């Protein structure tokens, strides 16, 4: 079977499905059932994505490894701390990888977005730096939230806090993307404008 490009809405449903399953099952049966359901839904969503596109991106693979390890520890040890730590490790890991890429002068965010838009080198570097900082903030925020509220409130925050924050942050990057757009007409020129 040939690879098919998923549209924006199906891709969003595949990406958000496991989180919604986690939220719903937690409300019905508690954190441990929710963790098992989340793990199953996550790997189903990865399988569906692969079936359509015939490839797995590095970010979902890293996420899958973290889900498997921390979800597995949560269920095996019957300790919800591990599933609460998962976002901290995940976001912190993304942040470190992106900062590492910047140190190596390789703006790694390009790997995720280069099929959606083209930027100058300076644009990719600035966008990578912003995402690295954003992921670090999410990691710290997760630590603050899970250590200071109930499990049910933390689960709700994962859906109704982290998702809106991520969407808002993504939309806020449109100015940078427009400013540093690269195309046939401007190759790798940078429009002079302070960040």
Structure description:
This protein has 195 residues and is mainly alpha-helical. Helices cover 76% and strands 0% of the residues. It starts with 7 loop residues before the first helix and ends in a 16-residue tail after the last helix.
Which range does the strand content fall in? under 5%
Helices and strands: which structural class?
Answer: mainly alpha
Shape: globular
Task: Tell me the count of domains.
Answer: 2
Oligomer: single chain
Overall pLDDT, averaged?
86
Low-confidence parts? 185-195
Q: N-to-C SSE series?
A: HHHHHHHH
**N/C terminus separation:** 45 Å
Give the proportion of residues in helices.
over 70%
How would a crystallographer describe the biggest sheet? Answer: none
**What's the Cα radius of gyration?**
18 Å
User: Total helix count?
Assistant: 8
- Number of separate strands: 0
Summarize this, please?
With 195 residues, this protein is mostly helical. Helix content is 76%, strand content 0%.
SSE blueprint:
Blueprint: H1 8-29, H2 31-53, H3 58-77, H4 81-103, H5 109-113, H6 121-148, H7 151-172, H8 174-179
């Amino acid at each position: 079977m040939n690879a098919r490009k998923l549209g924006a809405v199906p891709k969003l449903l595949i990406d958000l499905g496991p989180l919604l399953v986690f939220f719903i099952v937690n409300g019905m049966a508690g954190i441990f059932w929710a963790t098992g359901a989340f793990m199953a839904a996550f790997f189903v969503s990865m399988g569906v994505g692969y079936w359509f596109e015939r490839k797995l991106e590095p970010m979902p693979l890293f996420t899958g490894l973290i889900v498997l390890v921390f979800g597995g520890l949560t269920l095996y040890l019957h300790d919800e701390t591990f599933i609460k730590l998962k976002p901290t490790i995940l976001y912190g890991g993304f942040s470190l990888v992106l900062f590492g890429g910047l140190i190596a002068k390789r703006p790694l965010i390009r790997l995720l977005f280069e099929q959606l838009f083209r930027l100058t080198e300076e644009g990719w570097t600035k966008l990578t730096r912003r995402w690295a900082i954003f992921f670090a903030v999410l990691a710290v925020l997760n630590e603050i939230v899970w250590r200071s509220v109930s499990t049910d409130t933390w689960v709700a925050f994962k859906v109704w806090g982290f998702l809106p924050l991520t969407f808002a942050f993504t939309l806020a990057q449109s100015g940078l993307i427009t400013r540093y757009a690269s195309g046939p007409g401007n190759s790798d020129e940078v429009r002079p404008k302070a960040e």
